Request: fold
Amino acid sequence: MEKPAYFYQYLEPMSKELALVARELENSIFTSPRTMLTHARIFVENILQQVIRAEQLPDEPWTNLKDRIDLLNQNGYLTPEIRDGLHFVRQTGNQAAHDTRMFRYSEALLSWESVYRIVKWYVEVYGPVDFVVPAYQDPSPQMTQSYEITEIEERLKSLEKLLISSLQKPIEESSITEVAATVVDTPLQPERPGFTTIRTLTYKNQQIEIPYFLRDAFLLPQRFAISETFLIRLGAEQQARIMSELPNNLDGIHKHVKRYNEKNDENLFEELKIFIEEEKTRRQLTIERPGELFFFYKDDYIVVTEGLSKIPLTTDEFTGIPNLLRQLNEDQMETVQQLPKELVILAKYENVGIGIVGKLFEQLKEKQQSKA
Reply:
């Protein structure tokens, strides 16, 4: 039998929203016990809301988790084990939300066990008759690249919103199974670490999603052919040096500097689209080929092998760019391995433009291919 991508994948046919939130809880156990404990509380509260809805009990928007546990317990819907498990998740979640102490993996694992018992009860009582709950298993620490804690928080918040919105769907059937089954229309595949959308930039009626790994990325002006000078001027006003300095709405950003207009806003927005796609490609490349060195130029790249890295930066090796080579040597750059991985930076040198850097890149590529 093929191993599931995550433990609660079996929940997807019944409630994809619950399954995906559980997936993020599993990811956070060994990354941030505090995050797991805090959001486990939200997870079980949503389960109780679905139970209350199925049983057609009163549930006001201001009701908290303790009130919902008491409501179901007083009406005889909870066994002592499930009631105690719910209170444990609630109490440890409250501690994690407010206490500044360090929380241990063991505490997250205890909460994870309680979550399992609660989910098992929910599925067996309110799920389809033929639904099979797998035996409990401890999660394993991830051996591959994992999510940073801020990214996990963003993923959980997004999925929890989806889960809450699923509770607002009208009940079309009286069947409890139909109440529980809240499959989202579009399946959400797990994003690769770093690729979770952290914010959205807009211009007019267009949008760009900014992935987590780019949230504080340096906006190197040379990467923006049309907007280079515009970015330099904005940077001088502390408006666009890094991605997080950009406003959510780029319409009117030109007003921070003189002698620019709406066309510059539009050009910057279009070039940001290209920049983000290029950066996604680069990040994926570094994930797939860890430990390798690359030279990047616009949307292209070169793998820097040992043979290429040792080639001297001289006019004997590289033709047509003597001015660039002279200035590199003056800055103690004597061999290829000393070049910056982002080659467009070299356009900063006197009388060196993107065209000259392009010539260097093409010659580097030719030398790499000849050594392959």
Remarks:
- DSSP finds twelve helices and four strands in the chain.
- Strands lie at 197-203, 206-211, 294-297, 300-303.
- Residues 33 and 105 are 6 Å apart (CA to CA).
